[in-house]
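Weekly sync notes, structure subgroup
Attendees: PM, AL, DS (notes)

Item 1: joint prediction request from the bench team. They want all three components modeled as one assembly rather than separately. Inputs as received:
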Amino acid sequence: MMYNNEHFEPVITPNVTKPGCETLDFYIQNEDGYKALEKALKMKPNEVVDEVKKSNLRGRGGAGFPTGMKWSFMPPNPVDANGNVKPKYLVCNADEGEPGTFKDRLIFTKTPHRMIEGMIIGGHAIGSNKGFIYVRGEWHKEIRLMQKALDDAYAKGLLGKNILGSGFNFDLVIYKGAGAYLCGEETALLNSLEGKRGEPRLKPPFPAQVGAYGMPSCVNNVETFAAVPYIIQKGWEKYAKMGTERSGGTRMIGVSGHVNKPGVYELPMNLSINDIIEIAGGVKGGKLKAVIPGGASAPMLRADECHVLTDYDSLAKAGTMAGSGGLIVMNDTVSIPEATYTLLKFYEHESCGQCSQCREGSHWLARMFKRILDGGGTQDDLDYIAKICGNMAGQTICAFADAVTGPALSSVRKFRSEFDEMILKGGLHGLGRQESVSHEMGGAHV
Amino acid sequence: MALSEKIKKTINGIRHQFPTEQALLIPTLLEVQNDYDWVSIEHMKDVGEFLNLPLSKVREVASFYTMFKLAPMGKVDLQICTNISCWLNGADKLVACAKKKLGVVPGETTADGKFTLNQVECLAACGTAPALMMNEDYYENVDEAQLLNLIAQAQTDLAAGKVVGKSTRIEGVWP
Amino acid sequence: MKWVVLMSNTITIPAEDLNYTSGKMPVHSDPNPEAKPLPKVTIDGKAYEFKPGDTIMQVAERYKLHEDIPRYCYHPGMPIAGTCRMCTVEVEKAPKLMTSCSTPAGDGMVVHTRSEKVLKSRNGVMDFLLTNHPLDCPVCDKAGECELQDYTFEYGPQESNFKEEKRVYESATTKKLSDKITLNMNRCVHCERCVRFTDDVTKTNDLVMVNRGWHKELMVTDEKVGLVNDYQGCLTDFCPVGALTMNDFRFEKRVWFLEKKPSVCDGCSKGCNIEVHHDKEVVQRYVPIFNEKVNNHWMCDEGRLSYHTYADANRIVSPLLPDTASGRLSSTNWETAANIVNARVKNASKILVVVGTDATNEEAMLIKGHFSARAEVKYHSGFGENKALDHLLRQSDKTPNTKGVAAIGLSAMQASDVTGKDLVVVIRQGRAQMPKVEGQDVILVGVYSREEIDALKASNVRIQAVLPSLATIEKEGSFTNCDGITQSFNAAVVHRGKALALPKILAALVGEKH
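Output from the run, pasted for the record:
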């Protein structure tokens, strides 16, 4: 049953367990590395965009926006008010940090050239000569590995001037972040790339008009770029066929939490959550209780809902989302209110604080959940959580406020009886559970 | 006081990569953080002067990102992830263990100025939870015994005058 | 450019300007009927023409609909932030509510500013903003003109379910940012108008919002330097809550007792448009009012605090005559004073009249008319050639009407003008410097303080009489500012002393007995 998709083959991770897989030599010798680039450079940019469009590749960062369409938004020949040609920038979003998500780190450390090749092809497709790789600052080792990969690519003439004799120039630069989850939001990332606070921007204008340094820019996720060489090399049809009607290819799913074999798995999309848990060695330490299917922001699912398929549309229909592909498994020893508080504490810490609802609301929710854990909760609180979430979702500049409401709302809706019991018995203590030491709140960042 | 020549040299080396000087702000602050273990207002003034930015622009950025510490820190910043996947896999025990061993609560620095204990949000190492960072280095699938070993090793290395937790760093080379 | 001078409300605008925030209806002159018709946006069921590029908020402001759209972070004089989320409106066909401050109006766009969805959203924002606000209105100077109060009344929930501990900024509950401004961070709603003002308007970058999220805190950028900009009072004008308050006004008056009258600031040659706030004719403060052509939304601190000159306890507010025996000046009644000065002027053969450049255009004309036949009339500012002190408003000429006084054909007083005169009449109203009249017989007309009189006596000036006249805010008239814009004003307060309007004093000086 497991790989019942006859068209499936790993697109990104066929060799990631092999020694030396991260090197340029390995990539060229064993994975037809940079062959797709050679092919793409012989195609017209719009042909490359069309190929990606037809492949049904959707953004792997969380929002699932069709990549080809995003590329096609880039203006062909942008000029400024004085008629000077504006540069266009391609940006790779490697600010991975959504709790439960760790797939991009695997690509960075095991197959960096696939991503680099994808970026060069992307640069050709949108007519950009410069790309930035925005990486979260905590990845010191990963950044240096990526820099090594870039240096090797430059040395081989795969980056820089006149790539492979095509006349196309493309430079790639790494930019280190400095610790802000919100920089994974593409316009916050652009602000950060400019040396500003990582606060999302008002849209319009969209990055395709005014992006990095005021220039038209296109931001894609690491996994998205890493899928591009395959599409160009093997053709859009093969890639599209692997997926569903509205979403091509494979997905990198990071399975974590209470499973026996946590890790990143590249999988077809027609698997159910139960299938994936089985692939990841099954639930450990108890019976399945709940799953967060797409990173911390995705609403939780109960064990009895885990037959749902993991493609974008099926998960959306089930009231949650595919998000960033981080699947967090919780067994029946977990207190759902406590797990939710762990997530809300994160959101409270990471809200940038621009928008009123998010700044105050994410704090309010975290405090309220803490009070419930401490035994001070009331039934009214539970009703009010829904109201707070209703006042947050869809009301702010970016989707962060919506993300906060994902775990908050779904936990209360789906595990109401657990909250009721906790309130009735006086919190974690009343239930005979020990409170986590990590639950103390951090103060202001001083 | 002015920004050290070492930092200026590193940053001048990447200046050509970015269209604006302001873009160099985060890299410069990261270098300051690395060299001094924290970023003081005086450092911020130096950085502003170096990049032709008003202090307010430097200060709002330095206080926004969590990797910049605005108060003096220990030589070793021990950051334990306590977000969901790590929490599900025993991060709590690690925090309790570190608290007991170091005699400080998260956010505090040991009296000898060697260790600062912190809880940190997701490090994107959920598949190898629980994870922690010692300065720049990640340690994954850590249990209490390993944590105690790590602390002991760091203490030995510090006593020997070695740099701790920066195993992949080459000073003066960006990134 | 044709200037329209509007009496009494002080705003001078060019006829063709769509001066959208001045509280006036736009002027629709259509010089070219062939031109393409302007696009139209429908707001709450009515179609409005707009200039391409306008945001929904700007259209609403042009047509005075802005009362329907509440806002915290938006301010027409600053860049758009779009963060408070209070000004959201429903735009048909848009999936989410849109912030009217940042969303450009589109031709055929249909906007609802008070739909159920919009009101629910605003109610939500208020619920959040109130969670951490201390609700200390009884001891807050902003009470009565607070946007948090007003919008809570209009949009907010009447009760809160917030049961957690409120955020308290221990060190910033009453924090003096400078000798002019006090910060109460607990009241802040994080709209960041103040930071954008110091970044983009004054360009002094002396305020900064540090930290992120719920911990964001307003700080002076460099504590060692402090708040340094010259427009600090503006911070309190646009701070929507009582976070930033002016020390000069703190705990002075509840705002609902204030009467508000428009006037023009006479603190320099810029002529910022102001509102004089007074209670029972006692001035409590000046605040700027919008005039795109003069001061935009702002005024400097020096001008803002200049009302103290007129409210000063040492201001001479009744006529003074020297005692014949001791020479000491003592107050008298106007009849006695008039008789004496009238005779003194009649008996003088060589008179110099010095008009301060703080006289109104009308007063200067009148002085010229009264004296030019029998005296030399010169003007004096004491500040030399005017120059701008910064990119905003401040001017080096601290008198309001140098351009106007010069324009009626008077010339500037030279030091040699006093030689050979047997009487000098100085007409000067608190802003122009004292001309050098050492050793002369001088009649002083205008606004003077006791200190100024003492200083004159010390420099051997023989004061024949002091005849107090009304200050700018106490009279009507017009000034021509440094850019040549003439602005008229009416009296904002009633003078509470015995000073008289200048025409009456002039009549006493040179008129026939009446």
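Discussion: The two ends of chain B are 25 Å apart (CA to CA).
Action: AL to compare against the crosslinking data before next sync.
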